Description:
- The chain is built from 24 helices and six strands.
- With 548 residues, the protein is mostly helical.
- β4 (495-502) and β5 (510-512) form a beta hairpin.
Amino acid sequence: MSPKINSLNEKIYLYIVAVIVLGFTCFVRFRFLEVPLERDEGEYAYMGWQLMHGILPYVESNTMKLPGIHFVYATILTIFGQTHSSIHLALLFTNIATSFLMFLLGKHLYDESVGIFSGASFLVMTLSPSVQGFWANSEHFVIFFAIGGILLMMIALDNEDKKYLFLSGILLGFAILIKQHAIFFCMFGVFYVTYRKNKVAVFADVLSKVGIFITGVLIPLVLVFVIYYAAGNFDEFWFWAFKYASEHASLISPDRAVGQFIRSFDPVLNSNFLILLLSLLGVISVGWNKTIRSKYVFSFGLLVFSFMAITPGFYFRPHYFILVMPVFSLFAGIGAISFLKLSPTHHGLRRNSFLCIVVIFLVAPLFVQKNLLFKMSVSEITRHTYGLNPFLESIEISHYIKENTDEGDVIAILGSEPQIYFYSKRKSATSFLYMYPLMEEHSYARVMQTEMIKEIENSEPKYILVVNVSTSWLWQKKSSRKLLAWSQGYLEKKYKMSGAVEISFEKDSIYYFNDQAIESYLNSLKNNFNLQNKRTVFIFKKKDMDST
Length: 548
C-alpha cells in the first residue's frame, strides 16, 4: 500500500474516532446539563441577569473579575434562557466550537491528522470532573476567544494580512475582558508576532505589526474603560478589577506555590494520564520530527505562556487548568503523529497497530472515569466534585425564597452563594456577593465588613440566609469577626428563623420550611442553637412580615 493511501486511511480512522469522541462528549454533557450552578457560575448568572435589566457590574454587585464574563452570560441568558441547564447547554456549544478551533489550529500549523487528534483530545480532557468540566467557568470562554485569536494571528502572519492581525488582537482583548489571566495569551501574541519577521523585514515593519496587534487588544479594554467613566462608576470598577484583584493575587506566598500546584494537578494527571503522556511525547519529538522542529518556537512559546496563565496568585484551582488544555491537546496531536512516524509506512499491520495504540491513548480517560461520566447521577457528580457545598440545596432554597417574596423584595446572604440570587430572581441587599474578600488578611477587609453591615441595615431585607459551610467563608486566622458579632445581635433583634437545611454526605439533605418543622429542628438542637453549626443553611424572616 502506498504512503498516500496509508495517510488517507489514517485520516479516515482518526475522523471516525473524533466523531465517536464528539458523540460521547455530547452524551455525557447532556446527562449533566442539570448540574446546579456553583459559586462562580452563580455570580456570572446573577450579574448577567442584572445586565439584562440595565445594571452594570460594580454598580450594585462587586467582583474582582473583569466584566466580559458577565456580558457573555447575559448573552447566554438572552439566547438560551434563564436556567442553569441553558447555561450548560451554551457551554456544550462553546466546548465543541473551541475543539473545532483546535482542529483548525493543528491543521494550519502541522497537518490534518494533528488537527483531528488535537480537537478530539481537547474534548476528552475538558470533559473531566478533575477540571470541573461540566460547569461553565470563565476559562472555557477565555480559551474560545484566545484560540480564535491565535489562529487568526497565524493566518495573518502567513498571508501578510494586517487586517486579520488586528482582528486577532480584538479577540484576545475580549479574552482578557473575560478573565485577567488571558493577558498571557496576548503576551504570547506579541512575542510570536515579533519573532515571525521575514528575512527582509525591516524594524519598522515588525513594529507596525506589533502595533496593529496591540491596538486590536486594547480596543475592547479601552471601550470598557470609557463605558465606566461615562457611567460614573470608574472608581468602583478600578478598585475591584485592579486594586483588590492585585491584593488578592498576593495573598499566597511563592514558597507555597509548588505544593499548591501538585495538589491541584494530581487529579488532572490521574484522569488524563495517557493523553498527557502523548503530550510529553509531542514535546520531546522535536528531537526526530523535522516538521515539529520547524514550529517549535510557536509550540513551546504557547506552552510557556499557557502555564503562566494559571500561575497568578498561585491558587491553581481545578478549573484554571482548562487554560492549558489547548496546548496540551496540541502537543498530544503532535505526539500521536510523531509516534505514527516511528512505524514503518510499508507495513500495513504494524502501522495499524501503532494507530490503534494512539487511539487507545485518546479514549482511555473516558474508561478511567467511566463511573463518573456514565454512572453517577447529577447529585452524585456534584457531591463528588464539590463536596458539601450547598449547590444542590440552593435550588430548593431559592424556590422557597421566590414563593415567599415579591419581585421588588431584596434578600441578603451571609455566605458566598450568589447562585441563590439568580435562581430566586431576587436582588441582593448588599453589593458583596462573596464573603471571601471580607475574610482575607488585607487592609480592606474590615472596611468591607462595615460597608456590608451598613448596606444590609439600610435595605432591611425580607430574608437573610446564613450559610454555615466553611467553604462559603474561608475564615483566616486573622479574619475580623465584626460581621459575625453584628449578625448574631441583628438577627436576634429583627428576624426569626423560618427555615433550615441540613447538608450531609450520608443522607439526603433535610429541609425545614414551616413553623412546626423549625420548632422540631430547634428542639433537636436541645436549645444550643449556634450560628457556627457546620453544613447548615439557616433562613431568617423579618419579624414584621407576619403582620403585613
